[in-house]
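Dear colleague,

Thank you for sharing your sequence with our group. We've completed the structure prediction you requested, and as agreed, I am returning the results in plain text so they can be pasted directly into your records. Please verify that the sequence below matches your submission; if there's any discrepancy, let me know and we will rerun it promptly.
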Amino acid sequence: MLSCGAEERVQLIAEALDGPSVRAYCDMAREHKMWLSLGGFPEALLESEVVEGGPRAANTHIIIADDGRIVASYRKVRNAWHVCAQTMQCTRLLP
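Please find the predicted structure tokens below.
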């Protein structure tokens, strides 16, 4: 899992799936002939995908094949549970 901490930092480091970080992981997978499963990647959203007042990055899971291709990606839409980091109190979010 890739983790970068607070949401403010996520917005600063988020990048597209064809950005330099993912390209480096694709090169690594190809070079070592291994599959990679990258969870929690901060994917920058296109301007047309950003909802007013919403996040500008998605929590994306990426699967990279041993030939360096991205074969799947999944954007986590919403957590079922919200945990407040300051109080550690949980609130269930209902659709």
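Summary note from our side: The chain has one domain: 7-92.

Kind regards,
the structure core
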